[in-house]
Amino acid sequence: MIRITPDCAATGANPAFGTPKQLSEGGVKTSLVQQVYTVIMESLDSGALQGGSRIVASELASRLGVSRAPVREALAVLAGQGLVELLADRGARLRPMSRRDLAGVYEISGPVAAVGVRAAAARIGEGNNAARVEAAMDRIRVARQFAAGVEFYLVLNDFHYLINEIAEKPSVDMVLRAINIEYWNRLLAQAIDLKVHADRYVRNYARLTDAVLAGDGRAAEAVMLSHVEWCASLLSSEG
Question: For a disulfide at 116, which of 125, 172, 207, 238, Cβ 3.0-4.6 Å?
Answer without folding.
Answer: 172
